[in-house]
Amino acid sequence: MTDLSVRILETGTVTVDKTIQNRGLSKNKLAFVGLFRSKKERITIPVKCFLITHPSGKRILVDAGWDSRVRKHPISTISFPLYFTSKPTLPIGEAVDEQLISNGVQPKDLFAVIMSHMDIDHASGLRLVKDSPKIYLSPEENEAIHSCDPRYSKKTYKGLSLTSIAWNGTYGPFEKSWDVFGDGSVIVFLSSGHSKGSLSIKVEKDGRFILVVGDSGYNEESWEKGYLPGPVYSKEEIKKTLAWIQEQRQKKGCVACLCAHDPSEKTKPQLIVL
Ligand SMILES: [Zn+2]
User: Fold this and answer.
1) Bridge-partner residues for 209, per DSSP?
2) Which residue in 39, 55, 156, 225 has a CA-CA distance of 20 to 30 Å to 109?
3) How far, in Å, is the centroid of ligand 1 from the Cα of 3?
4) Which residues 6+ apart lie within 8 Å of 135 measured at CB?
5) 166 alpha carbon to ligand 1 midpoint, in Å?
6) What is the value of pTM for the model shown?
């Protein structure tokens, strides 16, 4: 038996328009795309993945960060429009497979990869963990990536087998969830709004829990002030998700609420044991 834990991994950074974190900063609702916007409006924020270890020793990787090919060929790897909006950097040693291996985990030994959603800064590194036995995403997101929405790149999952989660529980803001190990320790749930099928994960032991929420929030202000992100699939749904997360964060048992791009010291790479 090992401890239930979440390890925060930083897989490089992404440079984006500052309205990515808060669309209210500009009257232009597409400001986050970066068109006609000054370089001064750009910020560089971390890109995080999370490694959950279950007491059985099974490990789940949440998100895959950047593909290591962005180091030399960023535009051909992620396409020009996505490069323009989300400029990647990935120092040597920070790609997700490199970090798994330095933590003693081969991608083939993972229990699964679970994707919070399929935006390029989360999915471009999927190729690096293609040996994981399973790659899960929500059925809603799986549908969205096969539409013509330009925010998704089909290159990220070309040749990979993606598995839609079969929701069978009622946890979360939209009452769609999946208890991964059947013991309540890792609950995946729909938290849509940023994208059609964004999901989040609750990791819990004895009433103490960690929330891993992907891009359903960019830092504490998203939940405390209800700032909406730039890219939004449904304003109504993201508002509901942010309010729900804020309610959970205020509970006594909440140890941490972790999102993918929070630059705060509190959520720097570390191991959190429950
Ligand atoms: Zn993101």
Assistant:
1) 204, 254
2) 156
3) 28
4) 112, 113, 115, 126, 129, 157, 160, 161, 162, 163
5) 24
6) 0.95
| Owner of token pair 């998704």 | 152
Tokens of 137: 């995403």
C-alpha 89/C-alpha 92 separation (Å) is: 10
Compute, in angstroms, the gap from residue 185 CA to the centroid of ligand 1: 25
Ligand 1 centroid to 14 CA: how many Å? Answer: 8
> What distance in Å separates the CA atoms of residue 179 and residue 141, rounded to the nearest whole number?
19
Domain 5-271 has CATH 3.40.1000.10: no
Ligand 1 centre distance from Cα of residue 20 (Å): 9
Determine how many CB atoms are found less than 10 A away from the CB of residue 206: 8
Q: Are 29 and 232 in contact (CB under 8 A)?
A: no
Per-residue pLDDT of the chain (274 residues; tens, 9 = 90+): 789 999 999 999 999 888 878 877 777 777 666 666 677 888 999 999 999 999 999 999 999 999 999 999 999 888 888 888 889 999 999 999 999 999 999 999 999 999 999 999 999 999 999 999 999 999 999 999 999 888 899 999 999 999 999 999 999 999 999 999 999 999 999 999 999 999 999 999 999 999 999 999 999 999 999 988 778 899 999 999 999 999 999 999 999 999 999 999 999 999 999 9
Contact predicate 213/185, CB 8 Å: no
| Distance from C-alpha of 146 to C-alpha of 124, rounded to nearest angstrom | 16
Q: 187 forms bridges with which residues in the sheet? A: 179, 202
Domain boundaries, the chain: 5-271
